[in-house]
Design a protein that fits this description.
The protein has 277 residues and is α/β, with parallel strands linked by helices. It has helices spanning 12-28, 52-80, 97-107, 123-129, 131-138, 168-182, 200-209, 226-236, 249-255, 258-264, and strands at 3-7, 31-38, 88-94, 112-117, 143-147, 157-161, 185-192, 216-222, 241-246, 272-276. Helix 3 (97-107) runs parallel beside helix 5 (131-138) and helix 4 crosses helix 5.
Length: 277
């Protein structure tokens, strides 16, 4: 991992994500790419007869100055986390956030994205209902989403929600690599519903693949309430970060609906790592 992208709007939400990004950059000796986006207004020249070039230059300059004024605060945060040596490059772009993120990921060869989720009425409501879900769907690199009220603490246990699909083996290897750098344990969860095609041979196969991983455990929990089971798993197993494979967007939207929000809000400080199949 060489480059980590952090979209910033200088809110508390993005500052929380920035701290997680700093800690990831320290682990991998990676460079941080700090992205600030803004959208210039479209005005009718017949209604507002202004010099467009001058107006746009003024707005662009204002955003650039705002970014510069906020940088000392970010540098102070980096110092607090003993990350003064982390390289930070700054990009200011005009355009909608999702398009800008996709462009920067492509142009800068970004390996990882860390971004905050705006606080809706609950954790997964914000996760699905904000720009984060669009980024997860539209970029090909892992995305770590950090809830708006999250405060960084050492990650000691990573949860990995699996369906024991073949394409998730690579994702679990990625999670294990991250866990080793963090000196963390990994706990895999399979929620067995009445409709599951789960067979014992599957877990035996996975356990044989990862038999040399001493800090890896597998859990199979029978339940038809996937959301509540994940909620309980996070609480009972002291999960600090939950990793999941992004098979397709509607899997997330089906799994974490508005009705789940109130139940999950207790765990609003748990970051989500979305991986791609």
């Amino acid at each position: 991992m060489k480059k980590i992208l952090v979209p910033l709007d200088f809110s508390e939400t993005s500052e929380n994500a920035f701290v997680y990004a700093i800690e990831m950059a320290k682990l991998y000796k990676a460079e941080l790419v700090l992205l600030h986006t803004f959208e210039l207004p479209i005005l009718d020249s017949q209604v507002i007869p202004l010099n467009y070039a001058e107006m746009y230059d003024t707005l662009e300059l204002a955003n650039s100055d705002h970014f510069k004024n906020e940088m000392p605060k970010l540098e102070d945060i980096a110092k607090e986390h003993n990350a003064e040596d982390i390289v930070m490059n700054h990009i200011i772009m005009n355009g909608d956030l999702i398009s800008c993120i996709k462009e920067v990921v492509r142009q800068e060869n970004v390996d990882f994205v860390v971004m905050g989720t705006n606080g809706a009425s609950g954790w997964f409501d914000s996760f699905i209902g904000t720009n984060t879900s669009s980024v997860i769907s539209d970029v090909s690199v892992p995305v770590l989403s950090v809830a708006h009220d999250a405060k960084y603490h050492k990650i000691e246990t990573i949860g990995f929600r699996t369906r024991y699909k073949e394409d998730e083996i690579y994702a679990l290897n990625e999670v294990l690599t991250l866990a080793k750098k963090m000196n963390a344990k990994v706990k895999c969860l399979y929620v067995k519903t009445v409709d599951s095609d789960f067979q014992g041979e599957k877990i035996e196969y996975w356990e044989s693949i990862f038999e040399n991983e001493k800090n890896l455990e597998f859990f199979v929990i029978p339940s038809n309430d996937i959301e509540s089971t994940i909620e309980d798993f996070i609480a009972n197993q002291s999960i600090d970060l939950l990793a999941m494979v992004m098979h397709k967007k509607n899997f997330f939207t089906q799994l974490f609906t508005t009705s789940t929000t109130q139940k999950m809000s207790l765990h609003s400080k748990t970051p989500i790592l979305a991986l791609h199949e």
